[in-house]
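Changelog note: in this version the structure field was regenerated for every chain. One regenerated record is shown below for reference.
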Amino acid sequence: MDKTERLFAVMDALRRHRRPVTAQQLADEQAVSVRTLYRDIQTLIGLGAPIDGEAGIGYMLRPGFFLPPLMFTPEELEALVLGAQWVQGQPDDGLSAAAQNALGKIATASPDDLRDRISNTGLWAAQTSWTRESEPLLGTVREAMRAEKALHLRYADEAGNETRRPVWPVTLAYYEDKQIVGAWCTLRQDFRNFRIDRIRGAELGTEPFGKRRVILLKEWEAIWSARTTRPDTMAAASREGERDAPKAV
């Protein structure tokens, strides 16, 4: 690639990293020498790119930097459109509207030819159901996750028996036909996966999580990964109940 393409590639690489990344790692990603990478970084800084760091320590792009949509590749635009279409088909009104608005902002800030490409990708995110009802609980769960506040659930098991429990939601999975909340259940003192269609009511509490959500999420992922690799646990997780965690209850 020429120098201009390489500079944009370096910017894209920096945006993918949330923490400082070494020049060697960036150089390996771009298939260039460290010396060339140093020169590219200095060129970008000279052009006004808000890059912090220095040789031998690492580089990081400060938050808030926006690369014009003009620089999106055709594949990147298609991915954005397809993803937004899929989100718009979910029963989460808040996210559906946000996806539509996000595409609108990209289109408005783009030149005419890019707007045409956004509206004519030819891609279609097929949904399993076109008549799914809105599920307001999804917005409540997302709010609890963002605020890191307890969520008070009225939850029904397979037989319809209800329990009340405060949970700390750490992740929300959107499947084609259902949604699952991964959370720390203070009633069971363990991680559980709750099906949205079995939540009879949910209220946002004022109590903070006992741990940061990012830490809880790592713990949830570790337990889920370890237990789903065991054949006996995978079979148990497909049944209803709370003998293993995390799983849908």
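Spot check on this record: The first strand starts at residue 51 and ends at 54. Residues 5 and 81 are 23 Å apart (CA to CA).
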